[in-house]
Design goal:
Layout: E1 16-21, H1 28-37, E2 41-45, H2 51-68, E3 73-77, E4 92-94, E5 100-104, E6 114-116, H3 120-125, E7 131-134, E8 139-147, E9 150-157, E10 160-162, E11 167-168, H4 181-193, E12 197-200, H5 206-216, E13 221-226, H6 229-233, H7 235-241, E14 244-248, H8 249-255, H9 261-274, E15 279-282, H10 297-309, E16 313-316, H11 318-321, H12 326-341, H13 344-352, H14 361-375, E17 380-384, H15 389-396, E18 403-407, H16 410-415, E19 422-426, H17 433-446, E20 455-461, E21 470-477
Parallel strand pairs: 1-2, 1-16, 2-3, 3-12, 5-6, 12-13, 13-14, 14-15, 15-16, 17-18, 17-20, 18-19
Antiparallel strand pairs: 4-10, 5-9, 7-8, 7-11, 8-9, 20-21
Helix pairs in contact: 1-12, 2-4, 5-7, 10-12
Length: about 475
């Protein structure tokens, strides 16, 4: 498991980077370069590509794992229902303010007076005075009337509407299941590929994730994408059913006022962190790098803000999937995260957010390890975990030093790649606390997480290897 291969892979940051694979990053060579540049977890977007495409990328990633002898996480992101208008005779139409318009179930191509809206569920729930948005909010219409198979509306904002543009209905819970027939097929395929996480789109209520959890059946960890206002209303219940959260700010920012997004981000990141589950802040982080070799200053500040908030991971979408500069996007994101974590302000923010210790011995030991490691200036905190819960508890503390996680479960090691500060290592030759200490010291040296003479704080459980039994804290020297 250990060797010189690790020397060039040492991340100098604790916040993880998720990168989406696509046409710009589908070759084995590019995936390898992205990993070396700083990607910790790869996202497969099932809105695009075939199952064969995704399987090939999984094969590349698993081959790379063997080459570098480190676990790499893979997220399968399900498409969910896609709400779109139909097509126009000329491909698009011009809009004017207060112009009357009709959205109906007629499949005929549209014109300046009407267009197909192939979603009877939307027609059913919208009422006079409600708003409907199209093309990521660029077009806004107010409903002025309705019939059994149509909505009458007037244009409030927007100058153009073209074929198949997306539809959003803010403030309305739609009677549409989060999992479509396509998603069910994609889910079966993704689980067959051995992905580590499944991200569920279009989550509106806890029932959506409850059904997905049943279908996943423990074969992968489940993540809810928060992109609907209704998901914010039911957030506590949704959290109970999932292993992690993706805050998809792009879609969410269309359906809630943009000025509310920063406060929602801070609240959600804090709540998920306190729950001891990983959270990804996603979408539009370095958007301009789809076309430009450098981000805007505002984008750099946006990534830094997510790090200051205490997120586990930040994500690149089209920047690495279809952009012109995928490698540069990963490299600059890596530098922003490292630079932000190195500031005194960052540690002040993190330490000011005090966590409540749960009333069990495992959490007490993990909390103690955080303070002991800080006070003795330990190089890293090592955990031995079967289920991953001890490592997640440690990550919840957001220590200012790396977390070395030893586990005999390869799937656990891969899932933990998403969590703050965790360097997960699959081990097979650890049988007691003594051998765990020696192994941790050896791997910490190999990963350059520590050097000879440094201190190491280790938590484990007796009886050894029993899930949920963390009750031992050891301080040792790296020799």
């Amino acid at each position: 498991m250990t060797g010189k291969k690790h020397q060039n892979l040492q991340r100098k940051r604790q916040t993880k980077i998720v990168a989406t694979l696509g046409p710009a990053s589908s070759s084995q060579e590019m995936i390898r370069k992205l990993f070396k540049a700083g990607v910790d977890v790869f996202r497969l977007n099932f809105s695009h590509g075939t199952h064969e495409d995704h399987q090939e990328r999984v094969n590349f990633i698993r081959a790379m794992e063997k080459e570098f002898s480190v676990p790499v996480g893979i997220i399968a992101d399900l498409q969910g229902p896609k709400l779109r208008v139909g097509k126009f005779k000329d491909g698009s139409i011009e809009l004017k303010k207060n112009m009357a318009f009709r959205l109906d179930l007629d499949k005929a191509e549209g014109d300046e007076t009407r267009v197909n809206l192939p979603h009877p569920e939307i027609i059913k729930v919208l009422k006079k005075g409600d708003h409907i948005l199209m093309d990521d909010g660029k077009v806004r219409m107010e409903i002025t009337g309705k019939g059994k198979d149509y909505l009458s509306a007037k244009v409030i904002a927007g100058v153009k509407l073209s074929n198949n543009k997306g539809v959003n209905v803010p403030g309305v819970v739609l009677p549409i299941a989060a999992l479509t027939a396509k998603d069910r097929k994609d889910l079966t395929a993704a689980l067959g590929m051995g992905v580590d996480w499944v991200a569920l789109s279009f989550v509106q209520k806890p029932e959506d994730v409850a059904e997905a959890r049943k279908l996943v059946g423990g074969k992968a960890a489940l993540m809810a994408k928060i992109e609907k206002p209704s998901a914010l209303k039911h957030f506590d219940e949704i959290m109970d059913f999932v292993d992690g959260i993706m805050l998809a700010r792009g879609d969410l920012g269309v359906e809630i006022p943009p000025e509310e997004v920063p406060a929602v981000q801070k609240r959600i990141v804090r709540q998920v962190r306190h729950a001891g589950k990983p959270i990804i802040v996603a979408t539009q982080m370095l958007e301009s790098m789809i076309e430009s070799p450098a981000p805007t200053r505002a984008e750099a500040s946006d990534v830094a803000t997510a790090v200051y908030d205490g997120t586990d991971a930040v994500m690149l979408s089209a920047e690495t999937a279809a952009g012109k500069y995928p490698l540069e996007a990963v490299s600059i994101m890596d530098r922003i995260c490292e630079s932000t974590e190195g500031t005194e302000v960052y540690r002040r923010f993190i330490e000011a957010d005090e966590l409540e210790t749960e009333s069990d011995s495992s959490d007490a030991i993990t909390t103690a390890a955080y303070y002991v490691a800080r006070d003795v200036r330990a190089a890293c905190i090592a955990t031995y975990t079967t289920s991953g819960s001890t490592a997640l508890r440690t990550a919840r503390q957001r220590p200012g030093r790396p977390i070395l996680c030893l586990t005999q479960n390869h799937n656990v090691a891969r899932r933990l790649c998403l969590s703050y500060g965790i360097h997960a290592v699959h081990v097979t030759d650890v049988t007691d606390t003594g051998s765990a200490v020696k192994k941790a010291a050896s791997i910490a040296l190999d990963y350059k997480l520590a050097k000879k003479g440094d201190r190491l704080v280790l938590t484990a459980g007796v009886p050894f290897g029993t899930p949920g039994s963390t009750n031992v804290l050891r301080v040792s020297w790296v020799e």
